[in-house]
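Here we describe the complex-level prediction in full. Unlike the single-chain runs in Section 2.1, the two entities below were treated as one system.
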Amino acid sequence: MTSPNPMGETADRLASVVALRELADRLEDSGVEAAMREGWSWSEVAEALGVTRQAVHKKHLTRLVNAGIELRRRNA
Amino acid sequence: MDDDFFSHGMRGLVAACVEEAARRGSTVVEAEHVLLAIAADPDIPASHALAEVGLDHAGLEAALRGERLHSLETAGVEPFDAQSFALGRPTGKPRWGASVRMAMTRQRRGAGSREVAVLIGILRAEIGTVPRALACAGIDRVRLLGAVEAAV
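The structure predicted for the assembly as a whole is:
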């Protein structure tokens, strides 16, 4: 078999997965940042994302603190 | 980084690669970030081969953006520039992505500079973000690879 065409239909479908993952990650980062700037609690953000509060806290806390965003208490 | 297979004598380039990834919101350094770091540094001879086909840093960024937009369109997502979000710097330890690891297995050792060897490894990939971005920009990857290989 010759090498697959990197711009062929199948390659496009697989590349769209990569692009969508990247887009989803960026939407999550910016969405969580916006929510925290508006004063949402960790629990509210977690519920909106359909994940646990611990998961969203672990994933985003350091980045948000480094960005200088004032955060509500973790248990709020 | 999680290992030093890429860093012997290339610490400046490694730092630039990590920065390129971080600017795009990622701690995972992929082949396109290495390519961007090479293209941005005129002191790296490997960047000259890219410049000769019009691939300076801005040109490469545009090509990569074009590839992502094309890929999103395939999934039915309207053209949307994910890079447009202004995000805080990602946290966590930087690590090499799969595309860089693959490039390292394809690199040509023992000829030219280490950076050229890495560039050859990246350009030898036939599938993935980099070959797609080059195709989107109308650049003949095989011809570019041949020119780089012939120059060393």
